[in-house]
Amino acid sequence: MITAVVVEGHTQGEVARAYGVSQGWVSRLVARYRAEGEVAFEPRSRRPKTSPTALDQGTVDLIVRVRKELTEQGPDAGPETIAWHLQQHHQLRVSRATISRHLTAHGLVVPAPRKRPRSSYIRFQAALPNETWQADFTHYRLADKAGTDTEILTWPDDCSRYALHVTCRPRVTGPIVLDTFRQAVAAHGIPASTLTDNGMVFTTRLSGGRGGRNALEHELRRPHITQKNAAPNHPTTCGKVERFQQTMKNWLRAQPDQPTALPHLQTLIDRFTHAYNHQRPHRSLPHRATPRHHLHHPTQSPTGPKPRRPHPHPHPHPHPHPHPPRPHRQIRHRHPPPGRTPAPHRRRTNPHRNPRDHADQRPGHPDRQRPHRRTPPRPDH
Fold first, then answer.
1. Alpha-carbon span 378 to 44, nearest angstrom
2. What is the pLDDT of residues 236-249, one digit of tens each?
3. Strand partners, 141
4. Whole-angstrom Cα distance, residue 259 to residue 144?
5. Main-chain phi, psi angles of 81, to 5 degrees
6. Which of 13, 103, 375, 378 has the fewest CB atoms inside 10 Å of its own CB, making it the most exposed?
7. Separation in Å, CA 67 to CA 61, 71, 302
8. What is the value of pTM for the model shown?
9. Nearest in space to 284 (alpha carbons), one of 162, 132, 199
């Protein structure tokens, strides 16, 4: 149509009648060709140029600014956290997908195509607080000249995500684990179970020695607390405490005054723990509540020792005698069954096993031996 008008010199009305379209459509195509050239022959997108629900540029800039501020401060800076800050501090309600789309458009998301999708994991969570406590320790280096390595021991609750006890030590040992567990019990009650990895400070079940239980295992055994341990090389089983440690270490690294001694590090840990428990919303909790708010729910306590399996007989002595008779296992008949005649040649007994029962077969008594039907009797001399 365009070549018929521009090259061949036909009028737009003649071309419209020849192709069965409106004259206005032919006029728009010719005007587009004269303005854009051969690009006018390519099909255009039907996407609308404007959208009534699109975010304005000011909101997009605010999302980018909040993202950079949260990244500098250290805590999580994902779409869920940004949406919560926009709603709490700026009275703006933006969906998580919209925030993620704008962060990707501005190059603020590091692509990880080989990362395992989160939907592939089988998630589990305790139903009540104090139903399961997780425990683990991680490393953090001080900012002194030697770069001293320290270890941070954490006890979070599986249900409420509440950080029960967090402490830093030069090295985490079995007595330290026992002491921190007792402090957490004194402050929050006795848990029904614990979940840890297979570190020697938590369990000795994979040590291969004969030393017996360690201090924590003895402590858990007294009130009948169930001890659960993750399988080797499966860190996702204790994923909640692992994720808590990652968030804590990101916050510690973002602090301008890096700790140079253990007391300074413990002060920063206490600041983070208070903000984590009382101020920071958790996306895994209902209505994004704080761990402290969710900890007020009814708690779970140890269920006690497991009942033993019932005895197959209701009475302790089902037999009249203290020692029941042995079951009768008759291998060969000493007497023929009814209706059969005895066959001496079929009787194959050992005369040396019980000589009293086989006096007639003793050696040295030829007169008492029974003649065999296949051997002739011995002649008399």
1. 126
2. 889 899 999 999 99
3. 149
4. 8
5. -65, -40
6. 375
7. 10, 6, 43
8. 0.63
9. 162
